[in-house]
């Protein structure tokens, strides 16, 4: 396949690397520093098994999607509309667009901008950029792709290159499950700058995470979304399976960048307000991260 990755940060670079290593033609669309860095020696991936590099194309321009069979949109949730406007003039009608983004409404928002179907994808991977054009993999890497005419073919191609992928007609439920994980970990990891394994050992952290999860589950249920009955167990187990991972929100705050908190805890707070469900734990985390963002930008 010919693949374009829009928003080539940690998630986009990880999947772009695996696809390029398997022989697919990959173009990364990202920041100027990324474009410069991958000219030589290429896109670099660090894993527990070692370090590797693969050649890829890279550009800062939206025309990088021209002629692509597949487009992976990996931008921050707050940049969805801008990314859509950037690539829309260059998107082929037959191109399959996947949204590999946090939050639950990005595929819908992106499709409205593109006038083109967008398939939602729930992403379960622990990655971080350790330098321009260099990504580190800390755990997992599986995907759940929403149902579409091409989803089965794409899932098979991804699985063949080492990306475990399944297709689900209820991808929105998976996205809500991922949202709940993010609401539990992202803000707390950001405010403490701790990886998940250390974070959960803090006094009162598990109780606080439990409050966050219970609020999210209440909102999901009121919105007609089905989440696993043992979702709290799934949340807490992440501290073992991704013990060394700091949240994307933590990485954003450390770099002085705007985070996705408005589309994580902020999203469920807005949903709770609309549905008449109190959300004090999520509201507090959202408020504190917004204050930390303002301090970092000031």
Task: Describe the structure in your own words.
- The chain has 298 residues and is an alpha/beta fold.
- The chain is 46% helix and 20% strand.
- The protein has 12 helices and 10 strands.
- Strands 1, 2, 3, 4, 5, 6, 7, 8, 9 and 10 form a 10-stranded mixed sheet that branches.
- Strand 8 (119-131) and strand 9 (134-146) form a beta hairpin.
- The N and C termini lie far apart (44 Å).
Task: Show the helix and strand layout.
Elements: E1 2-6, H1 10-21, E2 25-29, H2 32-37, E3 43-47, E4 50-54, E5 57-59, E6 70-73, H3 80-87, E7 96-99, H4 106-114, E8 119-131, E9 134-146, H5 151-160, E10 165-168, H6 171-192, H7 196-199, H8 205-222, H9 231-241, H10 248-254, H11 265-275, H12 280-297
Parallel strand pairs: 1-2, 1-6, 2-5, 3-9, 6-7, 7-8, 9-10
Antiparallel strand pairs: 3-4, 8-9
Helix pairs in contact: 3-4, 6-8, 6-9, 6-10, 6-12, 8-9, 8-11, 11-12
């Amino acid at each position: 396949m010919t693949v374009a990755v829009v928003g080539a940060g940690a998630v986009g670079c990880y999947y772009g690397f695996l696809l390029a290593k398997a022989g697919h033609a990959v173009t990364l669309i990202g920041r100027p520093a990324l474009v410069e860095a991958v000219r030589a020696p290429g896109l670099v991936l660090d894993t527990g098994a070692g370090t590797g590099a693969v050649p890829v194309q890279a550009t800062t321009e939206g025309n990088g999607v021209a002629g692509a069979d597949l487009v992976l949109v990996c931008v921050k949730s707050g940049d969805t509309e801008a990314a859509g406007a950037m690539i829309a003039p260059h998107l082929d009608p037959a191109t399959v667009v996947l949204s590999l983004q946090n939050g639950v409404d990005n595929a819908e928002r992106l499709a409205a901008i593109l006038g083109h179907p967008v398939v939602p994808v729930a992403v379960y991977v622990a990655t971080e950029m350790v330098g321009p054009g260099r990504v580190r993999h800390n755990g997992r890497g599986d995907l759940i792709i929403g149902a579409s005419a091409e989803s089965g073919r794409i899932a098979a191609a991804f699985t063949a290159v080492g990306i475990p992928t399944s297709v689900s007609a209820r991808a929105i439920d998976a996205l809500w499950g991922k949202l709940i994980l993010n609401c539990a970990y992202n803000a707390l990891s950001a405010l403490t700058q701790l990886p998940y394994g250390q974070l959960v050992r803090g006094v009162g952290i598990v109780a606080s995470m439990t409050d966050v999860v219970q609020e999210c589950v209440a909102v999901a249920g009121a919105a007609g979304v089905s989440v696993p009955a043992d979702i709290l167990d799934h949340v807490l187990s992440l501290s073992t399976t991704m013990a060394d991972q700091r949240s994307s929100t933590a990485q954003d705050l450390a770099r002085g960048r705007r985070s996705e908190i408005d589309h994580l805890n902020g999203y469920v707070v807005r949903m709770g307000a609309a549905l008449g469900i109190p959300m004090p734990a999520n509201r507090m985390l959202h408020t504190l991260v917004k204050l930390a963002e303002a301090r970092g930008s000031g």
